[in-house]
Design brief:
Number of strands: 10
Distance between the termini: 62 Å
Largest sheet: 4 strands, parallel
Pfam family, one: CCG
Keywords: 4Fe-4S, Electron transport, Iron, Iron-sulfur, Metal-binding, Repeat, Transport
Catalytic activity: glycolate + A = glyoxylate + AH2; (R)-lactate + A = pyruvate + AH2
Protein name: Glycolate oxidase iron-sulfur subunit
Radius of gyration: 21 Å
EC number: 1.1.99.14
Bound molecules: iron/sulfur cluster
Strand content: 5-15%
């Protein structure tokens, strides 16, 4: 099939998907953007109508506002959960961003973000700068714009976590027999902003009986794919497949990375050999909480009141909902918050590009989190932690799941 034929058949596929929207409006009830700013163009219904108008020639070529409209989406997937036609609006937006980016170019910000995250050298340099700034209390001074990386709470911890029996029902996947060596996938945000939390994850996995390797990996490709830079995302996916495919288990404590790694088969679907390797890899990807529950890990109890925020990618993307709650219920006095699965408004770079709207969505989350009376708000995704960290203070800490269920560091 020639490129032109392929492009045209893909366009037909997207148009037929968009045609399935009957404008029922169910998506307006759950879209966080609509909740804080009731404009129809914020909703799945509005954006799908705009995309269809462009693809069928109703909107003229070269209309720059269309690109902005397609970027105005958290990719949270809440709309798809309630859509009677099961339209995956987030996927449609990513598809449109790629089409429009290839045609009209990408913004300087998205190009810089893509290159910066894709480069190991730039990430290492960034880590040095961020570590220095975090030490100098910049997180506090910048009002949470630069997130802090708090130590795990040490009070009320009776000792190392217990590594135990396998008989507890997980309700989820089973570990392959005898698989005890794993690759810990250090995502960009964990490595750059939350290295103490990443260390806590490794300590926890080790305490659960795994031999943990930390291979040098590349960015998972999600920031690039989300902004339509699919070619860069594909190149990163191939690098990661080569690095990781020798392992039987690959674990990440980043909900976004987990979902992105699981999505490699779809990303590489056009290249048969790579698609096969990507499919084999995707079956070995585990989220942090999921593998701990499957391994029968029992965290020690801490005297903490904790509530939990669902990462959209982990919850809706991978269906990991119970595992973190099971661990937190055992480790703490757990309290479920209202609408724990509402997006926090961070969504990668959305919070930087739309700060006012992002702040309003975060305020809804803060109200629900504080209403629980919790001491700690926990998430299993550094992307969420970067956003949620802005509300820390006044008796509420924000932490990664690993920091609450890990065994203590030696000497603490
Ligand atoms: S819920 Fe689905 S079908 Fe209904 S308006 Fe939204 S996108 Fe369209
Ligand atoms: S993916 Fe989220 S932000 Fe985007 S339209 Fe759907 S509900 Fe709204």
């Amino acid at each position: 099939m020639s490129d032109i034929e392929k492009t045209s058949s893909q366009k037909d596929d997207l148009v037929s998907l968009l045609n399935q929207c009957d404008r029922c409006g169910a998506c307006t009830r759950v879209c966080p953007l609509y909740e804080v700013n009731a404009l129809d163009r914020a909703t799945a219904r509005g954006k799908l109508a705009l995309a269809k108008a462009y693809l069928t020639g109703v909107i003229p070529e070269g209309d720059k506002t269309l690109q902005e409209a397609m970027e105005y989406c958290l990719l949270c997937g809440a709309c798809s959960e309630v859509c009677p036609s099961h339209i995956m609006t987030a996927d449609a937006m990513v598809d449109m961003r790629q089409r429009l980016g290839q045609k009209y170019g990408y913004s300087l910000f998205h190009r810089a973000l893509s290159r910066g995250m894709a480069s190991r050298g730039l990430r290492a340099l960034g880590r040095l700068g961020i570590a220095a700034a975090q030490k100098m209390a910049f997180p506090r001074l910048t009002g949470g714009l630069l997130p802090s990386d708090p130590l795990a709470p040490s009070t009320g911890h009776p000792g190392p976590a217990l590594l135990q029996s396998r008989e507890r029902p997980t309700g989820g996947r089973s570990l392959p027999a005898e698989a005890r060596q794993l690759a810990y996938f250090t995502g960009c945000a964990m490595g750059l902003f939350f290295p103490k939390a990443a260390d806590a994850s490794v300590r926890t996995l080790t305490a659960a009986g795994f031999q943990v390797d930390r291979p040098q990996v590349d960015c998972c490709g999600l920031p690039q794919l989300a902004h339509g830079l699919a070619d860069t995302a594909k190149a990163l996916a191939k690098e990661n497949i080569q690095t990781l495919e020798a392992y039987d288990l690959i674990v990440t404590d980043c909900g976004s990375c987990a979902s992105s790694l699981q999505g490699y088969p779809a990303l590489l679907a056009d290249e048969a050999d790579w698609a096969l390797r990507a499919t084999a890899l995707s079956q070995k990807i585990w989220s942090f909480s999921e593998i701990l529950v499957a391994a029968g890990y029992h965290p020690a109890h801490r005297d903490l009141r904790v509530t939990y925020h669902d990462s959209c990618h982990l919850n809706r993307g991978l269906g990991v909902h119970e595992a973190p709650r099971q661990l937190l219920t055992e480790a703490t006095d757990y309290i479920e918050m209202d609408r724990a699965d509402r997006c926090c408004g961070g969504s990668g770079s959305f919070g930087v590009e739309h700060p006012a709207i992002s702040k309003k969505i975060l305020a809804l989350k803060e109200k629900d989190a504080r209403a629980t009376g919790a001491d700690v708000l926990v998430a299993e995704c550094p992307s969420c932690l970067m956003q949620l960290g802005k509300m820390a203070g006044d008796g509420l800490q924000v932490m990664h799941l690993s920091q609450v269920i890990c065994p203590p560091e030696e000497g603490i």
